[in-house]
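Data card: per-record layout.
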Amino acid sequence: QVQLVESGGGLVQAGGSLRLSCAASGRSFSSYAMGWFRQAPGKEREFAAAIMWDYPSTYYIDYADSVKGRFTISRDNAKNTVYLQMNSLKPEDTAVYYCAARRGATARGADNYDYWGQGTQVTVSS
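The structure for this 126-residue chain is written out next.
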């Protein structure tokens, strides 16, 4: 069982930056693929970024085209935490951002993830 708690959301002007954090409880955090998703009002939850340990010595990272070059996902396995650094924010990035975890490889489909946080609101003003 994994519990996830997001933090770091808020209100920012267009062009600004935020860093989201997701703290995980439970064992074997390093064995989980971690993803960030977002959901804007009236829209479906969409994939933003994901990261997994790619044995033996690197990480595999995947980004949605809409955030590539602006967002950076990272993780600190010693702290059981995954981050999402968001730069050059746009009003269309406004959404509730969710952290998710699954065993095995990264995936873009929300249905592939087993554990979810409660979400954190990100609002980008124009």
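Known properties of this structure: Residues 92 and 105 are 28 Å apart (CA to CA). The chain is about 0% helix and 55% strand.

See the next section for split statistics.
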